[in-house]
Amino acid sequence: MRTFGSLLVRGLIVGLLAGLLAGTFAFVTGEPRIDSAIAIEEANASAHSHDAGSGHHEHAAEEEPLVSRDGQRFGLFLAASLYGVALGGIFAVGFTLLRRRLRTSSDSYAALGLAAAGYVGIVLVPFFKYPPNPPAVGDPDTITQRTVTYLLTLVIGLLAVWAGVAASRWVQRFGDLPWIRLAGGGAALVLTVVVAYLILPKINEVPGTFPATLLWQFRLASLGTQTVLWTLLGIGYAAAIDRRTPVAASSKVVAA
């Protein structure tokens, strides 16, 4: 029987590797879109300075960024690694606490199921309500509102997953067919999400002049980064705690 410390260390290591690979994916797919968005933001700021100069074409003093673009790119890998470690630790703790409630005799299947549930509740539910935006999009005055509503969607996403699991187990009394459980659980999850989406405020601060293609490329890159992270976390943790007995070893014992 593995100890909590052993499960936690495995979660931290798997989370670190998943974070590094997710950061690499974000660097390849997301950074070019961020550069394009920053260029648009700087062009808009320059045009605004011309307007404010009333024909004198006086450029406003440009503020130097606190961190250069090279520093931000390096920080992407650092942040992704730290996020992966933290997420891996939280995942290991969650697995330890919920293992007995996950109705499967396989630890690997339990880890994969927990990762899938986390991906739906923590990534997909918030993404479809409040998809991420690149630089040059968003009103600084609404950052507090956007932060609060995003955190609310995280909580609602986890509640929706819980509702889906609970409904799936409840409808099992009416039949043990897999599609009955799947339909009941899926209906409860979707209903919870739809109700929450209708209650939560709409936030759309994308300027009409911002390129739609660039916007969706950035959002898909962001979603892809999270997908890579959670997929690797689930598969990696399932492999790290796999308890299958090696066939070769068993054969040797029987032969002896």
UniProtKB/TrEMBL annotation:
Q: Which InterPro entries match?
A: CbtA_put
Keywords from the UniProt entry: Membrane, Transmembrane, Transmembrane helix
Signal peptide coordinates: none
Q: What Pfam families does its record include? A: CbtA
Bilayer-crossing residues are 7-28, 74-97, 109-128, 148-167, 179-200, 220-240
Designated name of the protein: Putative cobalt transporter CbtA
The organism of origin for this protein: Kribbella voronezhensis
